[in-house]
C-alpha cells in the first residue's frame, strides 16, 4: 500500500474536484462530470491511450449500479483501472504509482472560465481614433468624449427655425 501522505494528497485532490462547480457538494462523492474534468486536468486523458470515452466507461464500471457518483474508494479503484492503460510500458504497481502522481495535490484548473472576451472586433469598434466624419468631432485627442460640446448642432432657444436667415429682424423697423 502507498504511504499515507500519498493517500492524503489523493484524497485532497478528490475533495477539490468533488466540490468543483457544485455549491451543495460535500466533497465525499465525485460526479461523472467532475471525474472527467479531473482526468483531463491531471493529464490522465492523453488522447492516445486514454480517451474521454475510456474515462466514462471506467466511471460506470466502478460506481454502484444505482448511484450517479463515486466515493473515494471507487475513485481509487477507477484510477487503478486506468493506470495500465495510461502507462502501457510499466508494471501494474508502477503504473498505479504514476497515475497517482498525476493526481496528487492537484486542483481544478479554471482555464477558459468566463472571462470578458475583448476581441479584435470590439477593439476596432471602440477605437475613437478611427472614427470619421461628424463622429470624430465628438472626441478629443485622447479618445475621451466631449459630451454636449462635441455635437455640432447644439439647440439655440432663440425662437427661430434652425436655418432662418433673417433671425432677430422681427421687431426692427425698416
UniProtKB/TrEMBL annotation:
Keywords from the UniProt entry: Cytoplasm, Cytoskeleton, Microtubule
Single annotated GO MF: tubulin binding
Composition bias, Basic and acidic residues: 134-154
Region (Disordered): 127-157
GO CC term, one of those recorded: microtubule
Gene Ontology terms describing biological process: microtubule bundle formation; microtubule polymerization; positive regulation of protein polymerization
UniProt record similarity statement: Belongs to the TPPP family.
Name assigned to this protein: Tubulin polymerization-promoting protein family member 3
Organism name: Anabas testudineus (Climbing perch)
Gene name, Swiss-Prot/TrEMBL: TPPP3
Amino acid at each position: 500500500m502507498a504511504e499515507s501522505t500519498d493517500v492524503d494528497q489523493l484524497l485532497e485532490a478528490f475533495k477539490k474536484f468533488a466540490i468543483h462547480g457544485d455549491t451543495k457538494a460535500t466533497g465525499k462523492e465525485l460526479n461523472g462530470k467532475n471525474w472527467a474534468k479531473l482526468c483531463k486536468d491531471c493529464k490522465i486523458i492523453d488522447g492516445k491511450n486514454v480517451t474521454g470515452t475510456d474515462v466514462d466507461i471506467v466511471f460506470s464500471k466502478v460506481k454502484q449500479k444505482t448511484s450517479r457518483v463515486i466515493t473515494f474508494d471507487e475513485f481509487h479503484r477507477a484510477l487503478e483501472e486506468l493506470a495500465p492503460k495510461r502507462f502501457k510500458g510499466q508494471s501494474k504497481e508502477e503504473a498505479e504509482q504514476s497515475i497517482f502522481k498525476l493526481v496528487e495535490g492537484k486542483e481544478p484548473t479554471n482555464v477558459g472560465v468566463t472571462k470578458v472576451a475583448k476581441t479584435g472586433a470590439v477593439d476596432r469598434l471602440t477605437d475613437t481614433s478611427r472614427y470619421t466624419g461628424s463622429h470624430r468631432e465628438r472626441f478629443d485627442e485622447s479618445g475621451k468624449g466631449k459630451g454636449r460640446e462635441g455635437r455640432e448642432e447644439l439647440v439655440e432657444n432663440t425662437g427661430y427655425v434652425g436655418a432662418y436667415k433673417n433671425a432677430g429682424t422681427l421687431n426692427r423697423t425698416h
